[in-house]
Amino acid sequence: MNDTPRRRRWLSIPILLGVFAVILLLALCAGSEGFTPGRLLSVLMNGQDSIAHTILFRIRLPRVLLGIAVGGALSLAGVMLQGVFRNPLVEPYTLGISGGAALGVCLNVLFRLSATLGSWTLPLAGFLGALASITLVSMLMLRRRFSSVRDLLLVGVMISFVCSSLVMLIMAISRDEDLHGIVFWLMGSLDEPNTFLIGLAAAVSLLALAVSWLFSLNLNAMALGEEEATHLGVRVELTKRVLFLLASLATGLSVSVAGVIGFVGLVVPHFMRLYVGGDHRLLLPASWLCGAAFLVLCDTLARTVFSPVELPVGVITGILGGSLFVYALSAGRTLSGGRP
Amino acid sequence: MTTSAERMVADAKARVQTLRARVAGHTRPRVFIQIGAKPLSTAGKDSFLNDLIDMAGGVNIADDTTFRVYSREAVLAANPDCILIVTMGMTGPDEKQKWGQYKHLAAAANQRIFMIDSALVCSPTPLDFADALVIITGLLHPEADASEGPK
Fold first, then answer.
1. Complex ipTM more than 0.95, yes or no
2. Considering only alpha carbons, which residue of chain B is nearest residue A192?
3. What is the pTM of this model?
4. A175 in reach of chain B (CB within 8 A)
């Protein structure tokens, strides 16, 4: 690698930060009560006693923060898993994590826990469901019954299938009024007024960024192959376990707060590999930034396109993410070129 | 000869007429009716909940849409005078507390966030409809009730 592309690659962080800032501004301005940037400033400075201030600080800002946390966490989880397993198809959802979370939430709705005990039990049930499938997958992985990535992926996909069949079973026997809630939860939403959950998601997202960055050199070495990495002095098993658990926890928490938001964990890491290359020191923060910006942008579209009706954000991420990615691939770039 | 069923229907119709007359001419409060928490959903035009609000002398802020899912932000922007929470598969007190946090919302500032039992308003018979109308009219127009007393 000569110096010019390297410099250009490190320049991509300030560029991403710029894009991120523009999207944040757009997300805060756009909505059923649209603000111009000037109005935004005046509301920020001296609008304490207005509805506009409430909308900005109690609705839009929490949503944007949750979007940053969840988008960043899901993308990071994708980078970590793809790096550890050296397989482009591994992402939080192909390992059955979201399937488990979805099943947890459906069981909660079926047994009316959120109606009797409070809505806080909904994310808890999602998290326990995610934890259950993580435990299952990691037990299988740690026992080395499934030593190859292919086996692990197959197990993950099967767990997803079993979970989604059970979800459909629950939907078939659930009450009409519950059905609506389940369907929308499965499509994801960032409408979560609970500030504690938003804070928790943000903390876990930042923690995942910091911890995974400490392992970025290990990931770079592991890109050469596990044996080569071991010869270079990398503790491969430790790296695998830590990053797998970290990715699982970040996904489990994201899914339980915001529902199933697909494609971010799969598409953003690939996109960033195309643009910044395979160096994890750069790839990890770049993916976090890009995932956060992408989800905030999708959520802004979801809540403004058909305002006052809100579209499920998972639908937008799927349509936008999938088509952008196919376009990027067909525009002449290949995945293998950017592979670590 | 009128059957007992016809008498009951005629009686319910009369009650509806009385209530409508009672609130005629009063200022019509703007109302948001919440029928689901996740996602936040409401009853728009072409729903009988919309008819109930209209007959009770209120204006449904969501009467321009037929979709159920509604944005929380749009509710704040519309700033309704009154919020009715139909406790259907969700915890009413939780939702009431969430709306109560928005101090600049007229409904929260004037403490006009009410819960309604879903059994009453969600599968109406002609008699239930009249009962529901009595309750909603009372909530939307406490001044009319106070002067004439509920039927």
1. no
2. B38
3. 0.85
4. yes
